[in-house]
Amino acid sequence: MPDQKIAANLEAAFAQHGFAQPSVAILQKTSGVSLRTLYKYYPSKEQMIIAALDHRQQRYLAFLAKDAPAPGMEAVIHAFKQLQQWMKGSAPNGCMSMQAIAAFPENQQIRQVVNSHKQAVQQFLAQQSQRPDCAEALFLVHEGIASAWPLMGEATIASAEQLTHILLEPK
Q: Which residues mediate DNA binding here (predicted)?
């Protein structure tokens, strides 16, 4: 699938250069295809961003779920530890989705893709915890890790574990 390979290369380009800075010429070079082929699959820079974000979401959710224990508190803690590894290797400067919104705050298509991603993460946490009543709170913990990571690093994970115990331990 050439479009998936292009999307993967675009994801890498936006992760490296951000969203506002790279020109289409840089994106074309990074994508590894001709300008004509790039525009065939993604006719605008915004479509390129959406493709990169969609590709990243698929990778991210699969990464969170990798080697997860059975649903419950340990599965949520595992997801947060996976997030720690993701932040170290794939997002040391914070959440790429939120960076896309910051770069294109008025673009409704980008907003919609980011919103869909965030909803998928919240649903994932609801499934992993088996506590739909706590899904929003767990999602906020997840987002707190991603937002605070550039400043606090690994300390965010210890706090997330404490909060997870508070939220999910039987009363």
A: 23-42
Q: Specify the pLDDT at position 92.
A: 86
pTM: 0.91
- How many structural domains are present in the chain? 1
Whether 46 contacts 107, CB under 8 Å: yes
Structural domain of 48: 2-168
Confidence category of residue 171, pLDDT binned at 50, 70, 90: low
**Within a 13 Å sphere around the CA of 153, how many CA atoms are in the beta-carbon half?**
3
In the predicted structure, residue 140 carries a pLDDT above the cut 80: yes
Between 91 and 70, name the one with better pLDDT.
70
CATH number for position 67: 1.10.357.10
Sequential DSSP letters for 77-121: HHHHHHHHHHHHHH-TTS-HHHHHHHHSTT-HHHHHHHHHHHHHH
